[in-house]
Design brief:
Number of strands: 6
Structural class: alpha+beta
Shape: globular
Radius of gyration: 16 Å
Oligomer: single chain
Length: 102
């Protein structure tokens, strides 16, 4: 995660901005994981072996400032995912941040 932010910062000009959106801590998908899928705090493994990290506002802001970004915006975005075929609707929670290279 830190390496990705370092790479983004490396290619931006001073004053350039990056907008990130990722899974937010407390997202419905995170809450559905069963036993044995939690790797560490906020980090889970899906059934197909892929991994998902669910960010808190504080964690993403700390990572961004650690690598030299100024955090301009950092907020949770709530969306509703609707599966018409199954007839279900679930709330989703994403984190969205706008970062500037200083």
């Amino acid at each position: 995660m830190k390496d990705a932010l370092v790479n983004i910062r490396r290619v931006l000009k001073v004053g350039g901005c990056a907008i990130l959106r990722d899974y937010g801590y407390g997202d419905h998908a995170m809450l559905r994981f069963g036993r044995g899928h939690k790797i560490s705090e906020c980090f889970y493994m899906r059934q197909d072996g892929t991994r998902a990290y669910y960010f808190s506002l504080e964690k993403l802001a700390a990572l961004a400032t650690e690598v030299g970004f100024e955090v301009l915006e950092n907020q949770f975005i709530e969306k509703e995912t609707v599966n018409r075929k199954e007839g279900i609707s679930v709330p989703r929670l994403f984190i969205q941040s706008r970062l500037a290279k200083i």
